[in-house]
Each structure stands twice: as structure tokens, then as C-alpha cells.
Amino acid sequence: MTPAKEMHMTGEMDKTAFEAVFRKFFPALMAFSLKYLPDEDDAREVVHNVFINLWEKRASLDTSSSLKSYLFTAVHNRSLNVLRDRRKFADDAMPEISSEEDIHAQVEATELEERIGEVIAELPEKCREVFELNRFGGFKYGEIADKLGISVKTVENQMSKALKILREKLAHYLSLLVWILWNGIN
After folding, report:
1. CB-CB contact of 53 with 74 (8 Å)
2. Model confidence pLDDT, tens digit, residues 106-136
3. Residue 158, class by beta-carbon neighbours within 10 Å (0-12 exposed, 13-18 middle, 19+ buried)?
4. Highest mean pLDDT among 15-19, 141-145, 182-186
5. Whose CA is closest to 9, among 65, 48, 53?
6. CB–CB of 23/7 below 8 Å?
7. Mean pLDDT of the region 137-154
8. Among 35, 46, 43, CA closest to 74
9. Is the pLDDT of residue 101 over 70?
10. How confident is the model at residue 5 (pLDDT cuts 50, 70, 90)?
11. Number of CB atoms found within 10 A of residue 110's CB
12. Could you tell me the domains of the chain?
């Protein structure tokens, strides 16, 4: 397996290919994990564990899915797991829950976060790449266009497409988003 633009998982990943994948994706995965985890050591541990898991399961991985999508989804899920586990054991980090409605909203917020990660992972490759660079990498449209060798108009089109897909697939969560925004403001 060679590091190509569109990498797919393969059961035949050797040490050299694994090292190439590690070097290619580690910085982006660290930045992605840091969006969820404020501590760099926690983010590094999550990303390392994802790569360890990739190496250990390289022979049994689904060869039809994108390696990049697999890695980002795994980092997303493990980062959320770290947050969840930390909240369980840190009494001060857990706010007191005053009603059953609040509990329900917190559960839905967690589901929403997971669903957003899933929808982002399901975006078409170029669309996801543009979206992640803008929303998670902080790149402006012109910078993305330069980085990917495409026009600013193409970046705009890919972002519009990503946002449309997100709106459609997350429409069920609209009332929850309004509730979160309202309670965050007040």
C-alpha cells in the first residue's frame, strides 16, 4: 500500500506503508482530537491508540472504506470516550442536573455530537476535506483553494454541498440545537 490521494484500508499493510500513513495523518488527527480534548497529552494518547489499533487489526479491516475516514472517525469516537470517562470520575466537572429534561438534553447533545462526526465522515472525500480544513483547521476559502490546488469557487461549492448534507441529515436535531444555543446564551 502506498500513500495515495485516496487511501483505502488493506489487510496487506506492511511496516513501511503503516509508517507512511502515520506520518501523513498524525498531525491532522492531533489537530482534530484537540478540537474535543483540551489537553495535548490526552489527544496524543488518543491518536496513538488509534494507530496501535490500526496496526493490530490491519489484517481484518474492511478494504472498501476510506482509510482517512476510518482514522478520523476512530479519533472522534475515542476523544468523546475520553471526555465521557473523565466526566464520570471528576465530580467538579459534572454540573448538577436539575431536571429530567436536562438529563434528556445532555444525552441528546452527546448523540448529536456523535451523529455530526458520523455525517462528516460520510461526506464525499473532497467535500469532507474542504469542510474539515475550514471548520476544524481554521483555513479560509482562499487558503484551502491554494492548499488543494482548486479554485475558490470549487471550495465554495464543496462547502455549500457539505452544509446542505449536514442540514438534511441533522434536521432531526434542530430543536436540540436551538435548546443548546438558547441555554448557552442565557
Report:
1. yes
2. 666 666 777 778 888 888 989 989 988 888 8
3. buried
4. 141-145
5. 65
6. no
7. 92
8. 46
9. no
10. very low
11. 13
12. 1-94 (1.10.1740.10), 98-186 (1.10.10.10)
The residue assigned the cell 452544509 is 163
For CA atoms 12, 13, 16, 20, give the dihedral sign: positive
Which amino acid appears at position 50 of this protein?
V
Q: How far apart are CA 113 and CA 105, in angstroms?
A: 12
Has residue 180 got a pLDDT over 70? no
- Between the CA of residue 160 and those of 44, 74, 118, 156, what are the distances in Å? 32, 26, 18, 6
- Residue linked to cell 476535506: 129
Give me the half-sphere count of Cα atoms (radius 13 Å) on the Cβ side of residue 110: 14
Residue with cell 436535531: 173
**85 alpha-carbon distance from chain centroid:** 18
How far does the chain reach from its first CA to its final CA, in angstroms? 52
